[in-house]
Model the fold of this input.
Amino acid sequence: MIKFSKNNINPSDLNVVNKILHSGWLTHGKYTNLFENELSKFTKAKYAVTVSSCTAALHLSCLAAGFKKGDEVLVPAQTHTATAHAVEYTGAKAVFVDTENLSGNISYDKFVKKITKRTKGVIVVHMAGYPCDLKKIIKFCKQRKIKLIEDCAHALGSRVDKKHVGNFGISGCFSFYPTKQITTGEGGALVTNSKKIYQKIKILKAFGIDKDITQRKKPGEYDVKFLGLNYRMTDFQAALGYLQLKRYSSNLKRRHQIAKRYIYNFRRNKNIKYMPYSKDCSFFIFQIFTNQRNNLIKFLKEKKIQFSIHYANPLNKMTYYKKKYNLNNKSYKNAVNYSSTSISLPVYPKLKNKEVDYICKIINRFYLNEK
Done:
């Protein structure tokens, strides 16, 4: 069995976690600060904040942006539902935009057509780790005073013009879910270059409390000045994230090697499509696109090759949003096509070259047998 994902946690990481668990100091510890500082250093963002999930990071970003009832925030139709949920939690309306045909990233031309007087923000998603073409979007947002948030759940290590994603909007939101490039179990973080946004989110993520433990002259001495949430990450989770991030450069290098190997092995297969190699992609996954997906999926299962789909239904087909906003498929043709033809193949450091070659051999054989 070739698994879809394997984490990159080492025995030495678990030793650190064990020490934290036995210390009794499970939150507000030194590893939270270490992880935030390391993430800030890696992305070259001024500030980083650990949170309980990428959804939490997106929600906090939307709150910090000031989105409220009556506002509209544009979101790509092809993304995880968390991207849209974060908008809806604030009372604002998530407005879906069709995507580019192969990258799955938000389409600039479709984005511009969705702008109204109520548009206050946009969340772009760097799908599968391929960075969005942000130049036009950034320029347009600045002209219209539209707030930009980056969903970087797939994109740790992705860059645009040598600048790490997450640095182009008011914030960039990352996921450390078990299948991601580094994992803390559940967990996430956001980066920002705005001191105002950073300070607001630090308070928002911890009930709205105005002083953390290190700032209190005596236990329990703090004030709550606005309604906050409990979106904190534990210190042992932060330790896992910090230790994996410290060695992430080798993880990322291996992901690029695997992506190149997929592309080389598929170079003669005209029955599938895939994005070209990019030195700026994090290669969270490697996606292929095929009109024979159902049969290929069955074949992969028979050969004990695990895979995933990101994502099998675009948001316009999700019952909650479809009913609430009376959505159809005609306005989201690329997103619908993307969701119905994509297969996500494994990319992780522990995946061996012979396993990559075997996956490619099986997929290529499938099409030879189909002729």
